[in-house]
Design a protein that fits this description.
Layout (H helix, E strand, L loop, with lengths): L8 H20 L5 H37 L3 H4 L1 H14 L1
Helix pairs in contact: 1-2
């Protein structure tokens, strides 16, 4: 299996498109014998589908991380810069 955490989000989306095309090719093939399909093509398709699920989950996790980073408060982003003012206000009281 491929480690999807090492790729960028753009590369992951390109991989999804590539794997979907491979699945479409497998689905378009005519089935000559069921045993051949289930043991060769079916197992290959199953592996690709599992890999696509991992890629989709990784994309979702990255988008969640980006949203979390975007909407964090300024004090959480840079506690030294924005935390000093708060500390000084507390010390004055």
């Amino acid at each position: 299996m491929m480690d999807v955490t090492l790729l960028t989000k753009k590369e992951l989306k390109e991989l999804l498109i590539t794997y979907q095309a491979e699945i479409n090719k497998i689905d378009e093939k005519s089935i000559y014998s069921l045993s051949y399909y289930y043991y060769d093509e079916g197992s290959k398709r199953h592996q690709i589908v599992d890999l696509m699920k991992d890629i989709r989950n990784e994309i979702i996790y990255r988008e969640d991380d980006e949203k979390r980073e975007k909407y964090r408060s300024m004090r959480e982003r840079d506690p030294l810069k924005y935390g000093k003012k708060r500390l000084l206000l507390l010390l004055r009281k």
